[in-house]
Amino acid sequence: MASGSSAQGSSHRRRGDTRQRIQDVALELFVEQGYEKTSLREIAERLEVTKAALYYHFKTKEDIIVSVFEDLTRPIDELIAWAEAQPPTLETKREVLRRYSESMGAGASLFRFTQENQATVRDLSIGGAMKSRTFRLVELLRTEGGALTDQVRCVSALFTLHAGMMYLQHVDGDPEETRLAALESATALLTQAHHS
Question: Cα–Cα distance between 100 and 43 in angstroms, integer?
């Protein structure tokens, strides 16, 4: 067992302790004060390293956020690839929701960043990728040829998970309980769409 391993669940996939620390601190600052208002100098100061040491790993703020995005969304890309190879059954779609919810939980800091910096995200290279990924997930959940109401339920199931992560984060209680409650609601919508 490696010593000094992080207690954070989202760190298991990250490469290199220094790189991960930079990502975590930058994301923290981006959420606290906004992406545009955060400088590389401030990130270096919070890390207690020189700007040159930071530059060794990342040349720009966008390099940092793109690397965080790639690391934390890799499980979602793997989920999409898996789901596209499965029959479009209700069980497959439930599993898509379950795994997507888990990925969102592991990447909670990234989802908070996107919520707090929506205009910036649209302008960054990650904006198009996020939109494309969301549309692919919608297509995986949608019932081809189903009634319009059922299609809306399928799409709403996905956005129920987003609501649980982004809009219910300030609700009193355990964030994991909130995630699970959103998943339960999303699964109910999806099930209702398939039984109409």
Answer: 30
